[in-house]
Design brief:
The complex is a heterodimer of chains A (323) and B (324). By secondary structure, chain A is an alpha/beta fold. Chain A has eleven helices and twelve strands. In chain A, a hairpin with a 2-residue loop joins strand 1 and strand 2. In chain A, helix 3 packs across helix 4 and helix 6 runs parallel beside helix 7. The radius of gyration of chain A is 21 Å and the shape is globular. Chain B is an alpha/beta fold. The chains are: A alpha/beta (323), B alpha/beta (324).
Chain lengths: 323, 324
C-alpha cells in the first residue's frame, strides 16, 4: 500500500454513504503495453440507493465494478464499505466482508459450476461462510422464492436446464442468499430478449426493495439504466464525465458524451428522448475526447466534466431561461 | 438523426420476395420440431421489412429457410419466390448460386461467420471471384472499395488483417462489406447489432440505411427489439410460435389499437422517459414450444392471448408474489 496524499474530498461525495470509492485507478499489463482502464474514479452509494454506471465497452465501468469487490483491487485509491477500507483487509477478512458485497454477471450460466445442482449453486456462498447445512437449505429456499422460484421444483436440477432469464434470476438468488447490503450488477440483462429482460429487471427491483439493498447497475443502455437508477454516473475513457440524480441527467445532460449516448439509444418513438437534445449545448468542449476536464457542479448534486467556459455558458443560459 | 423521420418514397417497386404458406419441420431426437407453422409474406423492392419476435419465435429460421441454409433433416413446405423465380424448382446448386448473387447477409456474430485464419481480403474475394468471376487483382480492388464504403479507416492497410484484429463494430462493417460484394438486391441483417454498444449499433444501422438508399436495395432487419425496428423500416412483421401474429406499416405502429402481442412487447421495453424504479409489464411464462403438435387455430389463439394478457399491467410487488 502506498501512502496516499490526503487531498480535499471530492465535492460530489455525500455524507452517510454505504460505499465510497475515492480516486480509484486500475491498470493492466497487456502485450501491447499498459492499459489504464480506470483513471481516477470517485463516487458513493447511499444505503438503499441504486447507482447506474453507464458507458461503452472500454469505458472502465466493469473494471470499476470488479475493483469494488477487490477482483482485483485497484492499484491506487480507496474503496470504503461501511467504514472499512477494503484495500486494507487481509484475505480472510475480505472473504468475511464479501457476505455484504455481491456481484452478478452478464452471463450467469458461465458464472455457475455446470456440474452442481441449483441448491448448491445458490448455497455456495453460505457454505464458504461456514453456515450450517440445514440453515443453508432454508436460506436458499427463501432467496429462490424471492426471485419467483421454488426449491422443491428446481433445486435438484442443473444450470444448463434453464433459460437465460431463469439463470439470471438464479444468479440474483445466489447473491441474495448470503444477505448482502450491496450488489454490483454487471450488464445483467444485456444478452436477454426484451420480454425476458423486463422480468429480470422487475425481480431485481423487487428484491432490492424488500431487502433494502444498494445496487450498482452497470450497463451500456441508458434506457435500461433509466428505470432502475436513482443516481447515474457516466463513464468515458476510464473517468466519470457526468454524475448526478437520474432525473437531472436525463432532463439536462451537460456533457457531450452523455448526450451522445442518449441520442444513440434506440427508442420506440422519438418523443421519449429528452427535450434538451433538440437544441445544442450552450457551449461544447470540442476536446472532450482527449482532455480530462474536472467535474464541476452544473445543478443541485449534478456534476459534469466540462471546461470553465462551458460551465459559464451553461449558467448564462439557465439564468436567461429563468428571467 | 435518422429515426422516425418520413422515409423516402419507394424506388422501382414490384415484388422482390414472396413467401407463401411456408412450413418448416425438423426431425430431432426429441421429436419433430415445428419451427414454422405457415408463414406468408411479401417484400416490395426498395423497401425495408422488420421482423420482430422473442427467441424461438422462428424469425431466424424463416430467413434460413428462405435462403436455403437448412440442415438435411429439415422438411420444408410452401413456396418461396425470389426475383420471380420459385426457389423450390431449382436444384440445390443452382439455388445456392441464384440466392448467393441476390442476397447479402449480416449475422449477429461476425466472429463465427468469418474464418479466423484468413485475412479479410481473401475472404471477401471468395464471393466476387466465385459469383462475379473476377481476377485476384480485380477482387482485391473491389474489396478495398467496399471497405472504404463501409467506413473502415486505413482500408488499404487493413485488407490483410485477420478478423480478430478488428473491434466488434469494425468487424460488423467488414461483414457488411462482404455482404455487398455481389451487389445483392436484398440485404438481410439478422440481429446484426445485438451484441454491440448502443453508439456503435447506431452507426451500423445508419450505415445500412445509407447503403440501402444509395443502392436502392431491399432490406430485411431481424431483431428481438422492437425499438431497433421502429423508425428504420417501412413494414413490420411480428412472429410468435412460428407464425406471423401481427403485420402493419411501421408508421402505424402506434396508431389505434395494438395487437395484444405487439402491445405486450411494447410494454416490456424500458423507455427514456420513465421514472426510476418503474416496474415494466413483463410477459410471464414461455412462448409455445416447437414440439407442440399443431393445435387447432382457435385453441392456439386462446392460449396465446392468455400469455399476452400477462403483460397488460406492470408487475408490482403484490402481483409478482402471486405469480410464482
Amino acid at each position: 500500500m502506498t501512502e496516499t496524499v490526503q487531498t480535499a474530498r471530492a465535492a460530489h461525495l455525500r455524507d452517510g454513504a454505504l460505499l465510497t470509492v475515492e480516486d480509484l485507478h486500475c491498470s493492466f499489463k497487456t502485450p501491447s503495453g499498459m492499459v489504464h482502464a480506470v483513471r481516477g474514479v470517485t463516487f458513493d452509494v447511499l444505503p438503499g440507493e441504486t447507482l447506474g454506471l453507464v458507458g461503452e465497452s472500454g469505458s472502465g465501468k466493469t473494471t470499476t465494478g470488479r475493483a469494488i469487490l477487490q477482483l482485483p483491487a485497484g492499484q491506487k485509491g480507496k474503496v470504503v464499505f461501511d467504514g472499512q477500507d477494503l484495500g486494507k483487509l487481509g484475505r480472510r477478512e475480505l472473504r468475511r466482508m464479501r457476505r455484504h458485497l455481491q456481484m452478478i454477471f452478464q452471463d450467469a450460466l458461465s458464472s455457475f459450476n455446470p456440474r452442481r445442482k441449483i441448491v448448491d449453486v445458490v448455497g455456495e456462498g453460505l457454505k464458504i461462510q461456514g453456515t450450517r447445512s440445514h440453515t443453508i437449505r432454508e436460506r436458499v429456499a427463501d432467496s429462490l422464492e424471492q426471485v419467483g422460484m421454488n426449491i422443491d421444483v428446481i433445486g435438484e436440477r442443473r444450470p444448463h436446464e434453464f433459460s437465460g432469464g431463469q439463470n439470471q434470476r438464479i444468479a440474483i438468488a445466489r447473491a441474495l442468499a448470503v444477505g448482502p447490503r450491496l450488489i454490483v450488477c454487471d450488464e445483467p440483462v444485456a444478452s436477454l430478449d426484451v420480454s425476458v429482460q423486463a422480468r429480470v429487471l422487475n425481480v431485481l427491483e423487487d428484491v432490492r426493495e424488500s431487502n433494502d439493498l444498494s445496487l450498482i447497475f452497470i450497463s451500456h443502455d441508458l434506457a435500461v439504466i433509466r428505470v432502475v437508477s436513482d443516481r447515474i454516473a457516466v463513464m468515458n475513457r476510464g473517468k466519470i464525465v457526468e454524475i448526478g440524480p437520474s432525473d437531472l441527467i436525463y432532463s439536462e445532460p451537460a456533457h457531450p458524451y452523455t448526450r451522445k449516448l442518449l441520442d444513440a439509444v434506440p427508442v420506440l418513438d422519438e418523443t421519449e428522448r429528452p427535450v434538451a437534445l433538440r437544441e445544442p449545448l450552450a457551449f461544447e468542449d470540442e476536446d472532450w475526447g482527449e482532455v480530462d476536464h474536472e467535474l464541476v457542479e452544473v445543478g443541485p448534486g449534478h456534476f459534469a466534466a466540462i471546461s470553465e467556459r462551458a460551465l459559464e455558458a451553461l449558467r448564462a443560459r439557465s439564468a436567461a431561461a429563468r428571467t | 438523426m435518422t429515426t422516425n423521420t418520413t422515409r423516402p418514397a419507394v424506388a422501382g417497386g414490384g415484388e422482390l420476395l414472396r413467401v407463401a404458406d411456408l412450413t418448416l419441420d425438423i426431425a430431432t431426437p426429441q421429436g419433430v420440431a415445428h419451427v414454422l407453422r405457415g408463414v406468408d409474406l411479401s417484400v416490395q423492392r426498395g423497401t425495408t421489412l422488420g421482423i420482430v419476435g422473442e427467441s424461438g419465435s422462428g424469425k431466424s429460421m424463416l430467413l434460413r429457410t428462405v435462403l436455403g441454409l437448412l440442415p438435411s433433416r429439415a422438411t420444408v413446405g410452401g413456396r418461396v419466390v425470389l426475383d420471380g423465380v420459385e426457389l423450390g424448382s431449382l436444384r440445390p446448386r443452382e439455388r445456392a448460386e441464384f440466392v448467393g448473387r441476390r442476397v447479402g447477409i449480416v449475422f449477429q456474430n461476425p466472429m463465427t461467420s468469418l474464418n479466423p485464419v484468413l485475412p479479410i481480403a481473401k475472404q471477401m474475394s471468395e464471393a466476387s471471384r466465385y459469383h462475379l468471376g473476377l481476377t485476384k487483382q480485380q477482387a482485391r480492388r473491389l474489396s478495398l472499395d467496399l471497405l472504404k464504403q463501409v467506413g473502415i479507416p486505413n482500408a488499404e492497410k487493413r485488407l490483410d488483417d485477420y478478423p480478430h484484429q478488428f473491434s466488434g463494430g469494425m468487424r460488423q462493417r467488414v461483414m457488411i462489406a462482404m455482404a455487398l460484394t455481389t451487389e445483392p438486391e436484398l440485404l438481410v441483417a439478422d440481429e446484426a447489432t445485438t451484441a454491440l454498444d448502443v453508439t456503435i449499433a447506431k452507426g451500423i444501422l445508419d450505415l445500412l440505411e445509407e447503403i440501402q438508399r444509395e443502392r436502392q436495395m431491399t432490406m430485411i432487419i431481424v431483431s428481438h427489439d422492437l425499438s431497433i425496428v421502429a423508425g428504420r423500416t417501412d413494414d413490420v412483421i411480428v412472429m410468435y410460435g412460428g407464425r406471423i401474429v401481427d403485420r402493419r406499416r411501421t408508421d402505424q405502429m402506434f396508431t389505434g389499437e395494438l395487437h395484444p402481442y405487439t402491445s405486450a412487447l411494447v410494454n416490456s421495453i424500458p423507455r427514456l422517459d420513465m421514472k426510476p424504479h418503474t416496474r415494466l409489464a413483463a410477459l410471464i411464462g414461455q412462448p409455445p414450444s416447437v414440439f407442440e403438435p399443431t393445435l387447432d387455430e382457435e385453441a392456439a389463439n386462446r392460449r396465446d392471448l392468455e400469455r399476452w394478457e400477462t403483460a397488460r399491467v406492470p408487475e408490482t410487488t403484490a402481483n409478482l408474489k402471486g405469480q410464482r
